[in-house]
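Query protein
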Amino acid sequence: MTRPTLRSIAAAALLCTGLGGCGAPGGLGPDEVAPPVSSQPQPKPLWPSWTESPSSGGTAVAGRVPPPRPLDDAPAVGPEGIEKVDVMTVVRADKAMKRFSEGKQIQSPGKAGLRPARYADLTGDGHHELIVAADTQTGRSVLSVYTAADGKIVPILFTSGRRLSAETVGTDLLVRTTDEDGSAHDIRYHWDGQRMSVLSDEHKFGNAISAPSSGTCPAPLPAGSEAPAPANRGGR
């Protein structure tokens, strides 16, 4: 039996070091520290009360729309950002939201009116977008998102639905709606350089026996266009 020499032991040690350490789990040496695990963005509700309430009102209307155009009668956005622009002036300048400027502002679900404005960076440029939502007496809700471009206010998303709630997931916007039969839509929007476009659309079916009609998910409305008034169906 050949006894190991000092030279062979040293060579084996050098080989072991070059391979990243011997016997260390995961390829880490005895003095190495595992790199930190990056955390994933968690959903952050924009209106927590509406997220938790079953009576918050509002079917999802979403999809691709033509390139948005700035609002004609909206105020200019200065260096201080869109947060300093009067929200009601923006709502009145948007044909899709104008009729909600005549109602009252609400602080909790269960009533018709305009919810408190929210701000979040949805385009990833470090600046906030303006997010506005309103609840109607018919149980539907509408939501619009506005960004600032060259000092002008541009509507980049318009959607509506029942029991509408919204969350930010990183720079994405997650809009949840629930129909009367219990079916739900979870639609995640992502900035595509022009607008908030649909990144994912999850439909959870409820207890309805009949198949969904063609009106379950209406055709998308362009941002900045006027929303049709909900049909009166006996206080639906």
Notes: The mean pLDDT is 77.
